Amino acid sequence: xxxxxxxxxxxxxxxxxxxxxxxxxxxxxxxxxxxxxxxxxxxxxxxxxxxxxxxxxxxxxxxxxxxxxxxxxxxxxxxxxxxxxxxxxxxxxxxxxxxxxxxxxxxxxxxxxxxxxxxxxxxxxxxxxxxxxxxxxxxxxxxxxxxxxxxxxxxxxxxxxxxxxxxxxxxxxxxxxxxxxxxxxxxxxxxxxxxxxxxxxxxxxxxxxxxxxxxxxxxxxxxxxxxxxxxxxxxxxxxxxxxxxxxxxxxxxxxxxxxxxxxxxxxxxxxxxxxxxxxxxxxxxxxxxxxxxxxxxxx
Length: 299
What we know:
Helices cover 40% and strands 14% of the residues.
């Protein structure tokens, strides 16, 4: 059975009490039912931690550890992770015995080569016009996921799309579970051609025929960028990722250049300039820690 927040708790408990062999759960609901005595974990023999890096990023490590302590030590454990940060390594060392590591591709952080990555260097105030110009000219078979940094921005763009009569849906953590499920259903069956989302949709979603990913707001870390790009160009298909990159994102310029160069993508000269300026600024701060820096200069 599936256990997740926002779903019918009584129905989930009833399914557990009827007897199940496989439980798929989010950390929060799993702990809730474990604490209430409705979920018995002592006899679990096969444990899978999917998207382990994402669960750690979202602050679930304490909840995971609580449950892991209650499961029999001779279980078989599988951890899957798109990246291999120190937190995931620590979790693997703590809760597995003599683990075997299997990886597909490289352990280095790279974006899929089946996606063309396009970077637009622009001002914050130019994003909206650039976005709707693209939407107005996209093909009839296009299906787009748009990533925003905040729930408020997600709602704003969603309302603007509705006002322009564009077939769209939106998803973020404040949405009711039924609304999230409906949004996913709409984009999957083609009722909606545009899904506007926060990073709640950057992992785990396997939506057929997504042709474009638009990073309306560039993510705060490069790992999330890689995950977002991976929502298109799946299962042997190609896709296109379009990112709006502003002066506020200049700290990510160097890492983004590495991703682009590794995938043999075009790197705008402005991006190189931003990376060099940021590196120079960091060096000056190290050499002159008490010296202030004036803001407002371009890049």
